[in-house]
Write a structure and sequence with these properties.
elongated; alpha+beta; 433 residues; single chain; 7-stranded mixed beta sheet; Serine Threonine Protein Phosphatase 5, Tetratricopeptide repeat; two-stranded antiparallel ribbon; Nucleotidyltransferase, domain 5
Length: 433
């Protein structure tokens, strides 16, 4: 308890004079059992202004609008198709119809991001800076809202919700798990109503398109790898909560370095939302024209193809898999063979499997299946099975980690069963021959 009170005092939230005095201490005060009256807490003093370019919107609440230089471009038009951002595969697994094309004007989009006092999203976390990006006359602007102290939270939230309601189709990055639940929680705690919004969370789209090819799907990693931008002198995200708490505790007379830190955080927030909008346009373009853009954008072609198949766009799915296969992507060929077989196109299935690399795990597994079941040649099937086991047991990094058959151990067990089965078939043929 003592440690928590010391922490609160450091943050300027509790003064020692405002704490209750234990009864034992009160009884011994002055040696006569005299009681000590608790003084009334003084209200938090408002500074009344913030950084240059910001206007006061309410007590402790400030706002500004930033023009970013980003524009839609002639190829975008005035509307986009929301179904391009749906998880079509998941809808199909749940037995739902694929998301039908839904045209929405770009002007109804709010690109939304919070900066907060923590990353847990619990009731002790509050947001102190919001950014809402929007397209107006094809140009992209960002409206920011800031509070300098806790008493301004209700006004901050109310102002933010009103801005979002003007363009109620919200785009976030991990907003389904963090930003929107936090917004609802803090509004409830402040007695504010939250309207229902449409929502697109780009984190899920980026994971499907790039996690297998790029690894990290953090927004800043995608800025560098996908958008071709880097950041210089950016404030580290883990420092942001501490910097704002220090600033808030020092108001109404913050130090110059504390004000400079707030300026850097505001700039960081602008970059996040601008990158969010650019990423949205990039994903929209990839899904709209997958055959033209999948290779140059370095997407994971198998996940993109499965999304297209689930959306009823099989021609495009087969096209990009054929193109990736011709470039030597054995995983793309494996998926292509499976899809042709599912459609009972055995001629195309055999063509694809025969074109696969005999030195790859995928190629050996698929050829073993083809020669065992399709061509009824257990000798060749056994040879490919044995080669697949050798590759899997070689310890080559990644061998079996991305195979449709499951984990490395499961695949090895399946191959061992196939080898035993083929050996029995060959013994039978030799006995009967």
């Amino acid at each position: 308890m003592k440690g928590r009170l010391s922490r609160l005092k450091e943050l300027g939230l509790v003064k020692a004079s405002e704490l209750e005095v234990p009864a034992s201490a009160a009884g011994s005060a002055g040696g006569c059992g005299a009681s000590i009256r608790k003084p009334r807490a003084s209200p938090r003093v408002e500074r009344g202004h913030f950084l240059p370019g910001w206007e006061r919107a309410a007590p402790h609440v400030y706002t500004r609008t930033v023009e970013t230089g980003l524009s839609l471009g002639e190829e975008c038009g005035d509307i986009f198709d929301k179904s391009r951002f749906a998880n079509q595969r998941m809808r199909r697994k749940r037995g739902e119809d694929f998301a039908v094309p839904t045209e929405i004007p770009y002007g109804r989009l709010s690109f939304f991001d919070f900066e907060t006092t923590g990353l847990s999203g619990g009731t002790g976390t509050i947001a102190f800076l919001a950014a809402i990006g929007f397209f107006e006359a094809n140009s992209f602007f960002i409206r920011q809202v800031f509070i300098d102290d806790f008493p301004g939270e209700a006004g901050f939230l109310d102002f933010t919700v009103q801005l979002l309601a003007q363009r109620p189709e919200i785009v976030t990055y991990n907003g389904a798990a963090f930003d929107l639940p936090l917004l609802r929680t803090r509004c409830v705690m402040n007695g504010l109503a939250v309207p229902e919004f449409g929502h697109i969370d780009l984190l899920h789209n980026t994971r499907r398109l790039w996690r297998k090819t790029l690894g990290s799907c953090s927004l800043q990693a995608l800025e560098s790898a996908v958008l071709g931008e880097g950041r210089e002198d950016d404030v580290p995200g883990f420092l942001i909560p501490r910097l704002w708490l220090d600033y808030s505790a020092s108001c109404p007379n913050p130090a110059e370095e504390s004000l400079a830190a707030m300026e850097r955080i505001a700039a960081h927030n602008v970059l996040d939302v601008r990158s969010l909008a650019r990423l949205f346009l990039r994903i929209d373009g990839i899904i709209a024209e997958p055959e033209r853009r999948w290779a140059e954008e370095k997407v994971y072609v198998r996940h993109l193809a499965l999304e297209l198949m689930a959306a009823g766009r099989s021609r495009e799915a087969f096209s990009i898999l054929e193109a990736a296969g011709s470039d030597g992507d054995q995983g793309a060929l494996r998926l292509l063979a499976r899809l042709y077989r599912r459609e009972d196109n055995l001629e195309a299935y055999e063509r694809v499997v025969e074109s696969m690399d005999e030195g790859s795990l995928e190629g050996c597994v698929e050829k073993a299946k083809l020669y065992e079941h399709g061509k009824k040649n257990p000798w060749l099937a056994l040879g490919h099975t044995q080669r697949a086991i050798e590759i899997l047991m070689s310890g080559v990094e990644g061998a079996g980690s991305d195979h449709a058959g499951g984990s490395r151990l499961e695949l090895l067990e399946a191959l061992e069963m196939r080898r035993a089965r083929l050996a029995r078939k060959m013994e039978k043929i030799l006995r009967e021959g």
